[in-house]
Amino acid sequence: LVNRNAKRSRIYEWKLLIVMLGQKTSGKSSSSGNTILGEERFECGRTRTIQSEVRHGDVDGRKLIVVDAPGWNSSLSLTEIPERDKQTFKLNASKCPPGPNVFLLVIPIDCAFTAEQKRIVEEHMKLLEKRVWKYTMVLFTCGDFLGKRMIEQHIESEGDALKWLIERCSNRYHVFNNKERYNSTQVTQLLEKIEEMVEHNNGSYYEVEEQIFNIIREKQREVAERAEKRRKRAEEQRQEMKILIQGECDRITLYRLFPKCY
């Protein structure tokens, strides 16, 4: 127990950095992000996430940064996805620098994990390179769908595609029960599994390549420049409007003073 607490204290010296990945409608925001944080931090019941959203929280004595990445389209292969979207997907890991401790690959239990879905997952994860699997854990949602079955029975009955995924993640997985969203025990158990993985990885994180950081810095510079241009333009428009209003006021004043001249 003392040794485990010592390990945990070392982990607590930094935040747990979590990136959630998965297809659209997998329940990353509602069934995962909010459950982990213990409150409604990610918006639900709206247009699906179109850009990464980052939330901070303190859970069970742990400081967390949780990133909800845009979900991928389960019907599109990588060749059908625009290059811009591929680059955006790669940038998800940069949202919690220096890099995530874990990628939670969110898989709903109430939908079959088919060979086609396996292919889509594999293609997207390849964008993050082979080393990403060292930091990946499957997070099953809709755990209530299991009924009295164990998750291991579900994995066994689903077939080769899901078995492949679990093996690829070195048998790391966890289940969230949607009907017990604010059951803190299931969150505590997930965080303990993440901590064990971090310890196994010697406290390392998925390091974002320098090239990607350069892309991010360039993008941030462009965004800042556009914002400055908008600010200057807005100021110019305010000045122009001020001059017009002042001119109109002067005209009205002159009319009142010298009505016969108008």
UniProtKB/TrEMBL annotation:
GO molecular function, one term: GTP binding
Signal sequence coordinates: none
InterPro entries on file: G_AIG1, GIMA/IAN/Toc, P-loop_NTPase
Presence of the UniProt keyword Coiled coil in the record: yes
Top-rank taxon: Eukaryota
Keywords, alphabetical: Coiled coil, GTP-binding, Nucleotide-binding
UniProt-listed Gene3D superfamilies: P-loop containing nucleotide triphosphate hydrolases
Domain AIG1-type G: start-end pairs: 14-215
Coiled coil: 217-244
Homology family: Belongs to the TRAFAC class TrmE-Era-EngA-EngB-Septin-like GTPase superfamily. AIG1/Toc34/Toc159-like paraseptin GTPase family. IAN subfamily.
Protein's UniProt name: AIG1-type G domain-containing protein
